[in-house]
Amino acid sequence: MPHASQIVISISLFLMSMVAVAQKTIDIKKFNLVAEQVTELKKTDLVLSLKQLTTFENVLSALTVEQNLVYFKLLAEIQIEQNRYSAAKKTANEGLIIGRRLASPSILMSELLYLRGFSFESLGNIPRATKEYKKGLEVAESLHNKIQVALGLINLGAIAYLTDNYKRSLVLLNDAYNIAGQTDDEELKGTANTELGILYSLLRQGDQSMAYYQQSYKHFKKAGLLLSAHNSLHNIAITHIREKRYEQAITVFKTIIAESNKDTSSDSMFTVYSGMAWAHLKKKDSNIDAAHQYLLLAKQYLQFTEKVDYRLQFYFDEASVLYKLERFDEVLISIARIEKILVNHEDMPKRKRKGYVNIINLKAKVFYKQEKFKQAYETKSRVIALTEKLYENEDNRSIAQVRLKLEAEQADKQNEILNNQKSRYEASFNEAKLENEEQRIYLIISALLALAFAWVLVKLIQSQKKLKVALNVDKLTGTANRRRLMVKSQQAFELAKVKQYHLSLMMINIDHFKGINDSLGHSIGDEVLAKVAFIGANMVRKNDVFGRFSGGEFMVCLPKTNLKLAMETAECIRAAINEHTWQLNNIEKISVSIGVATLTDDSELISLVKRAEEQLYQAKASGKNKVCAQ
């Protein structure tokens, strides 16, 4: 017989296991309630929400698959709010692995894919982020979940503007905005407004961008999302900086700092102090010392960020401030860090490549200040080469109105003056070479003259570009003029005939344009023309040719485009113009009529143009604000 002590031990172990099982069952039953509490709590207290959620970390195996997905989704969301993107990526991945056990798709899988995608995006892996977002959108669409479909469109719309595809971004984000408007989800509405604000900011539409940011702030406040609301305020402040309203930007940044709490992420604090530094640097009564102090505050948070873009931003700001303080050796250290990060700068979007050119130009200035003239000349030459490469494929579009008539008239005179300067510099160079016997003096003078020569070359290139643009660009709208339009369209027409490609033409006419000129004046008419051109030009592809055909009429040549796709593009343009909010007195709406024709047996381009115009007349005759096609 067993000893009494053994019986007591067995009974004790049995009772302990029963207590554990009972406790485990209670925890499992409580999970759904706690998950709901964490969903709300993480809006205001990330630390406490994380603490409550992780109490279930050791009982995950006893939870259902759906409960596991909820756990990993909430955990990844909290980690992203804390800017722990590598951890969030790992968490989302764990949840997706568990999700494979499901017999049918769950909307939680879509949410986890978006979270993993955002982690990749934040870590700088745009191709992988795009792949994740597309997978998540496919799941959301298969389940007809309106909110998650909108989020997928927002994610892909952001990727589009990050890769300079503004037309696609505009379409995707507007679709998401419209879907969000059909829901009661304030967070979704805030997110859609935020992304549209960023897009219009990149398109240099400051007023419209600001309006979207202000709306996003209201939606986030209504949803009780303080951190997201602060992000909207940050965007508002950055818009003030771009519009050179530095004191207003500083006021907004101070509001964010005053309202920040323990949950405010290191990334958010970094961007706020970085913005404060830049505003103090650029304002009218520039305060370099204050800018440097705010930059040092930003630096404290830099060590916690995983975002490559933030590191680039900091080193760029640091270099600019240190240059003003004349601490040139430190400037070169900051620039070296930027160059190390941007080893593959040629693969970057254009706006980042512009920033890279600016930083190399700053490097040339530093060398000049340090009297390292040979290095200054070599670096300046590199700037010229990079600038040429940056704009070698630039088309004839302009985001804002251009005033080129005067520049066109003066271009030839300027070229003549610059060529004369070039000759004088060359003569001075030869004279210096003959008269100066001491090698050191000769090198200094040579370098100085080389810098001057480089400056002349830059001016020559700039004037030649202005002349080229003046010959090809409509000075009012910044789009291709009729001459350029017909030349490019003829080339596309001939290629389509030889290669048997599709080719479509679009004729766009502003409805009631004569009435606008007669009643409101030609200055208002010019603004309408410019805005319609801007909207239209940014809705077509890079290889399409958008230009002003005459008066209030535009033409678009669409190579490799069949009638169906051309009509879809035309409808997008018509809708975008009709839905645009006009900031002009006495104008609420502007509409356009569009005629579309596609290449069939036309022997000449003019035949295709006439057919497109016939469809335009049909659109006008049937009530205007329409697309008609043949």
Automatic annotation (TrEMBL):
Reaction equations catalysed: 2 GTP = 3',3'-c-di-GMP + 2 diphosphate
Transmembrane segments annotated in the record for this chain: 441-458
One GO biological process term: cell adhesion involved in single-species biofilm formation
EC number: 2.7.7.65
Enzyme class label: transferase
Domain GGDEF positions: 501-630
GO CC term (a single one): plasma membrane
Cofactor(s), names only, from the UniProt record: Mg(2+)
A family per Pfam: GGDEF
GO molecular function, one term: diguanylate cyclase activity
Domain of life: Bacteria
InterPro entries: Diguanylate_Cyclase, GGDEF_dom, Nucleotide_cyclase, Rev_trsase/Diguanyl_cyclase, TPR-like_helical_dom_sf, TPR_rpt
CDD domains in the record: GGDEF (cd01949)
Keywords: Coiled coil, Membrane, Transmembrane, Transmembrane helix
Signal sequence, renumbered to the chain: none
Sections of the chain in a coiled coil: 401-435
Alphabetized NCBIfam families for the sequence: GGDEF
Listed name of the protein: diguanylate cyclase
